[in-house]
Each structure stands twice: as C-alpha cells, then as structure tokens.
Amino acid sequence: MAANEMEFRTCPITGKKVYATTQNLMWINAVTAVVFILIGGIMALLVALTRLPAVHLLSPEWFYKALTAHGLNMLVFWIIFFEVAGLYFGSSVLLNSRLAAPKVAWLAYILMLVGSVLVDVMVFTDNATVMFSSYVPLQAHPLYYLGIILFAVGALTACGIFFGTLAIAKADKTYEGSLPLVTFGLSAAAIIAVFTLACGAIIYIPTFLWSLGVIKNLDPAMYRLIFWGFGHSSQQINVTAMVSIWYLLGALTVGAKPVNEKICRSAFVLYILFINLASEHHLLTDPTLSPAHKIWNTGYFMYMAVLASMIHALAIPMAVEVAQRKKGYTKGLFEWLTKAPWGEPGFPAMIFSLLIFGFIGGITGVVYGTEQLSIKSHNTWALTGHFHATVVGGTTLAFMGLTYYVIPLIFRREIIGKKWASAQPYVYAIGLILLILGMSGAGILGSPRRHWDVTFADSIIPFSFDPTVLLFTTIAALGGILAAVGGAMYVGVSVLSVFLGRKLAPNEAKLVY
Amino acid sequence: MPITSPETYWWKPADKEEKIWISVAIVWCLILFTMMPLWHFVGGQNPSVEPMKIRPDDFDKVTGAFIEKYKIGEESGIPVVKPPDGADVYLKGQMWNWIPILELKKGVNYKFHISSVDLMHGFSLQPMNMNFQIVPGHDNILNLTPTASGTYHIICNEFCGVGHHTMVGKIVVKD
Asked: Is residue A402 part of a domain?
C-alpha cells in the first residue's frame, strides 16, 4: 500500500510496465468487486429459488429485499468496482505510465466502499426495499441515498484519475503515437461515465433532501426522466467497457489485432455521441411525454449507436479470424473457429459474451425500444430477460473472462483450479441462456417483473396466467440456479487463486495454461 | 495489437468486406429509423397520450364521484361501475387494488383516465398484455375500444410495496 509511486516491474508477457501503486489499487478494487458479486450472487440464488414455483422459498418481504440487494450489488457495485480496476489498467498499465494521484485513487475507493456498505446496510435492515430504480414517492432511509451519492462521487473521482493518468502518460511520452485501442475504448466509457454520473447527482441530491424532509414534493415523472439518464446510461458505460475488453481478450487469447483501427475507433465515437439518447425509451408508456416527443425519440439517432455495435460485431470476429489464419488454420471456412482455444477460459467467455449480448440482448433491446412494442414489453419479465442478456451475459461474462488473465499477469498468482476456470464460462453462459429465454417467454405472455407470486394466490380478485407462463418461469429459475453455480465457480477460482495461488517469480511468464 | 499504440498512420480506407457490412448495417438502421414515425401514422397502434397533470387528491375525488354516479354493484368489496357509452372512465391505482371494476360495452370507445393516489403502479391488461406506466400526479389518458367481449384482468407490474403481487383489477366487456 505504501509503495513508492515510481516503483514498477516489467510484465514478461506484454512487456508493459506495471507500477506497484497501480497494481495495489487494481487488486483492492477487483477483490472488492468479487465480494459484491458474491453477495449479489447469493441474492440471485434466493430470488431464483423463490421464482421457482415448486420451491417458492422466501417470504414476500425477504423476496423484495433480496431483489433490491441483488440489483444494486450486481449492477452497481460489482460492475463499477471492476470497471475502476479496468480503468487503472487501461491507463497506467497499457500506457506504461505511473498512476495520477494514487492517494486520491485510494480516497475514491474508500468513498465507493463506504457508499456501497451504507446502501447494503440500509437494504438489509429493511430501510430501503425500493429496488434498483427507487422510484419516488417510494421512500428509503436518507442514508440509502447518501450511500449512492458517496459511491457516485467515488466513481467520478476514479474517472478523474483515469483522465489524469492519460495526461501524465502524454506529458511523460510513455507511449508513441495514438492511444492503444483498448485504452481508447475505455476513454469512451469514462467520458460516458462523466455525464451519466452527472445525471445521478442531479437526481439523487434532491431525492436525498426529499427523504430528509427539506424538499416537500418531488415530481415522480421528473424523477423517472432524470433517473434513467443515470440508470440506463450507466449500462452504456458497461457496454463500452465490455467491447474494449472483447478486444483485449481477443489479443490475450489468440493474439487478435484489429483489422482497421479507423473503423473500430469511429465506432467508439458513435457510442459517445449517440448512445445516451437511447435512455428515454424507458418513458415510452409514461403519461408525461407527448406522442410527438415519443415519435422523435423512437425515430432517434439511437440507431447510430446500434450501428456502432454492428461494426464491433464484425471487427472482433474478423480480427480473431485473421489472427487464426495467420497461425495456419486455413482449412475450409471455419477451421479458424474450430481450432480456437476453446479450453482457455478467456476465449469462450468472449465469444459467449459477444453472442449473448449481440443476438439476445441487442436484438431484444432494439425491438422493445420501439414505441409500439414497448406497450407489449414494458415492465414485463421480458425486460428483465433483455438486461440480463446485456449486463450479465455481456458485461459480467466478459469481466469474468478477463479476471483469469489479470490474476497471473497483474496479481502474479497462478490460477488454482484451471479446469474449473475453463468450464466456468460454459456453465455460466448455458445457465444465463436458459434464464433469459425463460424470462422472455413468460414476459411476452404478460408475466410481470419484480413479482413474488405470478399465481396471484392472495389476490381479492382471482386471476391466473396461461399455464405456459409457469413452464417458462420454471425454465428461467432453473437457468438462474445454474448461472449461480457458474458464478460460484468464478468466485471460488478467483478468490482461491488471488489469496492462495502460487506466487509467480518476477520473470515467470504464465497465462492460464 | 489493441493493447499497444497503432502504427503512426492508421486512418486507412476500409476493405471491401468491411464496406459491404457497414453499408448493409447503415441501410438497415435507416429502414428502422424511418419505420418508427411511419408506423405511428400508418399502423395506428400507438398510445394516444395527452400529457395532463392531476393532484392525487383531486384524482381520488373525481374517481369517487365517477363511481358514485355509475355504480351498479359490488364484488369482493370493490365497486362495480358501468359507465354510459363513450363516457370518460376513471381507474385508480392504489396499494393494492385497481378501483373500480369496470363493465364496458364491446365496440364503444371510452376515454380512460388512469392514475395513482400513492406510489407508482404498472397498468398491465391481460391476457392481451398491454402495459402502461401509472404515475401519481399525472393522468395517463388512453382512448380504448374493447373489440371482443369477455373478462379481462389488470395486474400491477411496477413494484409498489410488499402487497404488490396481490394487486389485480377487472374489466368485463359485454356485447
């Protein structure tokens, strides 16, 4: 912790300078991320076991509490702590530069940690069963909102450290020419993060004051509008960071090199310019916006962001194919793919992440984001299916894949349980695909999200769905349980390796195999 | 490599394959882009939202008056209301009921006013699965014409507290 700011070692595989301060900060942020995925994962398992009609484990009070905790720990704490580690890697390690203001980076970490612990304490003490979206006028304890604000300030500070490090690297001339593509992509993510966190501040500060009684009235519709500027945009940070990590995993697993830097970089610029406009689709069935506004929204430049994803969808597999063909896998159309390192955890993690994000998450997102089909999908379980494909199948799976390389390269520990690590992306991806298909099937038939009992046993007015809903619900819950097993494998392998894995000698080069 | 700086001159023209792919994607985006507004006018499937504000207390009073005027009975303690053809219909979401139960006539157009008197609720009409966000302080105005007789249910699909999963309403459509 008290490492000299200028102390560094050279990575035997990539030749990059790894500064001790950067390594420590990456370590603490990544380890904290894994603690939160463990909490969120236990909650996921409890939620899945309650959704499973044959078990229906939790009481309604506990179900809604567990669901709130699941959303916050996974979507916010796990992902953002990991992203902060990623930002320090993308700036300091990839650019061979010392990290800007390590003490401030520690302060950012402490703010995020205090914020997230505060939020979890409030949720688990029954003071904030409000779900991730915490829609006004549903009120939580003031400390809940304060926790979110502290976390956001910490995350914003970490973005500042990232930009500061880019400036130092430029001034110290630690690299020549343009930024590496991965750093360029992470810069796009950090730029999106800045205006996302600004939206968060604009809405959470008045909500905090409202919970204290300082502000008497807060318009729930206004809350929804600004909240989604934060809530959905933060998913765009994840998308951008995830795509950068796809490029990184392509390089680490098969030595993939982007075929055309211009095209890849232009696609990242499209994200910065247009991706945020997509956020307003949350309000397509709201009473507050006029039809003209909604038509404009759905006819929007959202498709320019979709175009960016389409470009990456070509560029990444293309880079992999070129790299594989150069190695001599040239037989037929697909030898490059069949001879890919499917036993290395990073490769299947990248491919499943790409497929689940693109084919399931992306397509459902574009479909549900149209004004007409939003009526059919709004607040149904199909929506939950959509964002589990993007955020879990996409972002989380990519981050998991990367972890298996960060541990030997940056933390200098040998992976314990390599076979478990190799099997983990498959187990997790299959579980998720079942989960997402089940959720989508039940949701399209009308099954609601955030719901304790889709049989409506306690209602005054009796109602029951088409029995197919229960079949889909069972598939989703079983998929969820399988994904929780995959998640447990990830936590097990990464925690054991980080703490008990054999320390690698300074010049020992070791990827997973 | 994506982890090292690219060669100095990287602003290079795209290859043929890349050009084809990006062109197809752009054309497809443009089709989607034009279909959205076009479908609003040609398809006629969009909600006819008129943004209106109403205080929850006032909405409660208006709904109360509407129920009193057209009430025809009660079911499980919830009033059953049969509004005249083409009337304005008021539907109130509250923790954890949709009030009142409505009896409507097939083929008649009704102007629905839906709002909440407490938290956010989700109006989810089953089995056709049409969903609208119900926001306290705002009147979600929808022009609805029932086209088939039968019994329909409204479930709540926005989390509204610990009884959220029991919130069910009913609309009966008669010939």
From this structure: yes
CA-closest candidate to residue A97, choices A163, A190, A188, A166:
A166
* Closest residue in A to B41 (Cα–Cα): A295
Q: Choosing among B4, B34, B94, B171, which should be mutated to test the A contact, i.e. which has the most A CBs within 10 A? A: B4
Residue A403: give the domain boundaries.
Answer: 341-513
Instruction: Using a pLDDT cut of 90, give the percent of chain A over it.
Output: 82
Nearest to B127 among A257, A378, A446 (CB): A446
Number of independent structural domains in chain A: 1
Contact A291/B130, CB-based, under 8 Å?
no
Q: State the DSSP H helix or E strand holding residue A402, giving kind and residue range, or none if neither.
A: helix A397-409
Choose which CATH entry (2.70.98.90, 3.40.50.620, 2.60.40.420, 3.40.50.1000) describes domain B52-174.
2.60.40.420
- Is the Cα torsion angle B98, B102, B107, B112 positive or negative in sign? negative
Which of B18, B37, B168 faces A459 most closely, judged by CB atoms? B168
- How close is the nearest chain A Cα to the Cα of B123, in Å? 9
pLDDT higher than threshold 90 for residue A243: yes
The one-letter amino acid at A351: I
User: Would you state the structure tokens that stand for residue A191, as one six-digit string?
Assistant: 């730029």
Element housing B98 (H / E):
strand B97-99
ipTM of model: 0.93
Q: Where do the structural domains in chain B lie, given as residue ranges?
A: 52-174
- Contact yes or no for B164 and A64 at CB 8 A: yes
Asked whether residue A240 is assigned to any structural domain, the reply reads no
Query: Which of A176, A287, A461 lies nearest to residue B169, judging by beta carbons?
Result: A461
Residue A170 lies in a domain: no
Torsion of CA A456, B74, B153, B162, to 10 degrees: -40
Cα distance from B135 to chain A (closest Cα, Å)?
Answer: 7
Residue A348 pLDDT > 80, yes or no? Answer: yes
Q: Which two tokens stand for residue B36?
A: 């959205």
The chain B residue lying nearest A94, using CA atoms, is B3
CATH number at residue A348: 1.20.210.10
A428 is a domain residue = yes
